[in-house]
Amino acid sequence: MTGGSAAPKPGEPGVRAGRAAGPGRAFARFGRLFRDGRLLQDGSPGGPVLRLLVRWVRRPLLPAVRLWRRNIQLRVVAATLLMSLGVVLLLGFVVIGQMRNGLLEAKEKAAQSQAAGGFTVAKEIADAPSAPGKQGADGSGGVQGKNSVNWRTELVEQLASGGPGAFNVVALSADSQDDAVSTSRAPRASNGVDFTSIPADLRDEVARGTEPFQVYAQIRYTDATEARAPEPGLVIGKRLNDPDGKAYELYYLFPLTQEEQSLNLVKGTLATAGLFVIVLLGAIAWLVVRQVVTPVRMAAGIAERLSTGRLQERMKVTGEDDIARLGEAFNKMAQNLQLKIQQLEELSRMQRRFVSDVSHELRTPLTTVRMAADVIHDARADFDPVTARSAELLGDQLDRFESLLSDLLEISRFDAGAAALEAEPIDLREVVRRVIGGAAPLAEHKGSRIRVLGDAQPVVAEADARRVERVLRNLLVNAVEHGEGKDVIVRMAVAGGAVAVAVRDYGVGLKPGEATRVFNRFWRADPARARTTGGTGLGLSIAVEDARLHGGWLQAWGEPGGGSQFRLTLPRTADESLRGSPIPLEPEDSRRNRERAAAEQRTEQAQRLMSVPSQPRGDRSALPVPPHLAAPPPTGAAVDPTALPGSGARVVARPAGDRPADGDGDDAPRNAAGNDALRKASEREDTRGR
Asked: Does residue 320 surpass a pLDDT of 50?
């Protein structure tokens, strides 16, 4: 912390430490860009549409997201339901797979057995001798009787009669050309089966071999209706020879409708059972989690009430389980906490009462001692030098003792909550003038000059004039005392619903971390530093209590060697809450702001140098002069830091010794001499004018 320290605004969190950039930060920035709708801005027509869409999507989801984040019972039940659903789905897939494989395996074995028997019967019929007396189509007898047109039809009907509805039979010729020219070798099918249901791949395999082949395919019917829609089935085929010795193909088609119905029944049963199981597990999880979450919620509610000061709240404990032991431990903790707080409150009450009683009781003897000290002080001219000096020291220390006693009484009123605010509309300019008038002798003694900025317009607020004057007097006296003889700036401003008064000095300043400790009671930045004005160490503590009583802020900023600034911010009306301050806490003429302004100025000048066109060799007057090549300013003058841009002050030429910038305490004699010179010069000018 090299640039100084500043007290944080009341009610605001401190500044977080910086973190290194990484992939997570990059994704977070991208998410903010997408969330804020800045991803498609700057010329892209989809920016407003995207922002509107994101806002429209996020609005209904916000309550659900908030409920999800705050309700642990909902998260546990949802996780239980999801895991139960996964388990049920996994078990369902396994069971259905096992059932499907079992049904298909059983169906396949039965179909193979049935088809093998049919193939054997067809072969026996084709190899059997012709019955006597039968005539063939050409009028001859014997084997030619089997080559009739009805032979293949009778074969298909005979084979299909063994299992009506269980399977179908199709007979196809091995030579497709014969099917087109010969009626006796045309395709034959039972039960209206479309012979195109036989896959071409299966026919190729059957045509190349003599073993049975099988494949799963869709069985279609020639009279396709809703009742006879295509259905899955198992097709088994084999190549055989007819009575003429010509090859033909015989196929068995086994519908899988019953197996499909059985599998659908199993699926429905599993789905219904799984749904009931999931709902049951969700209800069980809800009840179980409720038994655990309910005591936790009770503990959270009681903890919130304890934090508001209701220390008598306790949990209701039933049973002897872990939750009951947790409740007993919580109640014991609350009881011990209540006891400790009561003890601390009693101790604090006794301390406040002791301070108040002692302060009141000391007034009587202090009055007597004051009267005696005044008598001795008035007669010090008749004493010897040592006794006279002792009388003066006695008077000074009595003054300080009276101030300390008054401050202790005021602190005791704040601690007891007995401080009352008498607010009325006042103009802070009048209060500042009275405070400056009271601090003028000390400023003249220290060689400092008090300047007022921002008093051109009224600065009116509802406040207690006595308390505000006490706060400003304390701030101004401290600024003059620690200003090392340099100027003290009092700035006033009003904006919105707030007014502010800032006191700026250019003395030793504050070290890092001291801006928050400066308001502690009896705290001193340098314990070895003597208080020339006899301060009690309670002034800033009383001042911050006065600011809080008004509902305002009293904050401090400082940097080593660069001075400090104390800012008092008050609401314009007594019942209004503060949202900001019209005056920044860190002044514009701080070292960090000056370095930033100088860097920006150097950058602008460098850019102007790069943009200036080339000049003739003999003419260089139009070129700007870089800062490091410019002629140094006169040694006898310096720019007042308060006259930097935005400060609202004029640029005043001052002697080199009276430079209120980053000087330290060693420059105080020179600054005081410069101030004296300025005052004498101004007095001479005033005399001439008169």
From this structure: yes
- Give the separation between CA 380 and CA 384, rounded to whole angstroms: 8
Please give the Cα distance from 95 to 690 (Å, whole number): 114
Q: What pLDDT score was predicted for residue 482?
A: 85
| More confident of the two residues 667 and 522 | 522
List, in sequence order, the alpha helices (H) in 223-321. Answer: 257-307
Placement of tokens 């607020």 in the chain: 461
Residues 249-283: pLDDT tens digits? 899 999 988 888 898 999 999 999 999 999 998 89
Give pairs for 469-473: CB < 8 Å, separation 24+. 469/431, 469/434, 469/435, 470/542, 470/543, 470/546, 471/543, 471/546, 471/547, 471/554, 471/568, 472/431, 472/432, 472/435, 472/501, 472/503, 472/568, 473/435, 473/438, 473/439
| Top-confidence residue, 407 or 682 | 407
Task: Find out whether 590 and 558 touch, Cβ atoms under 8 Å.
Answer: no
**Cα-based angle 555, 556, 560 (whole degrees, multiple of 5):** 170
CA–CA separation, 239 vs 248, rounded Å?
A: 6
What pLDDT digit, counting tens, does each position of 464-475 carry?
888 888 889 889
For the chain, the residue count is 690
Report the distance separating Cα 287 and Cα 284, nearest Å: 5
CA distance 484 to 526: 15
Residue 136 pLDDT greater than 50, yes or no: no
Q: How many helices (H) and strands (E) does the chain have?
A: 15, 13
Closest CA to 539 of 624, 481, 457: 481
What is d(CA 190, CA 195) in angstroms, rounded to the nearest whole number? 10
- Above 70 in pLDDT, residue 25? no
Q: Which of 521, 526, 620, 511 is nearest to 563 (CA)?
A: 511
Handedness of CA 322, 328, 330, 336 (dihedral sign): negative
Picking from 102-111, 185-194, 265-274, 455-464, which range would have the lowest pLDDT averaged per residue? 185-194
Q: Which amino acid is located at 359 in the chain?
A: S
Any bridge partners for residue 564, and if so which?
Answer: 505, 558
* The token pair that represents 40 in the structure block: 């498609």
The tokens of 530 are what?
């003597």
CA 414 – CA 542 distance, rounded (Å): 8
Q: Residue 503: its pLDDT value, please? A: 92
Name the phi and psi angles at 185, rounded to 5. -110, 20
Lowest-confidence region among 97-106, 308-317, 405-414, 577-586: 405-414
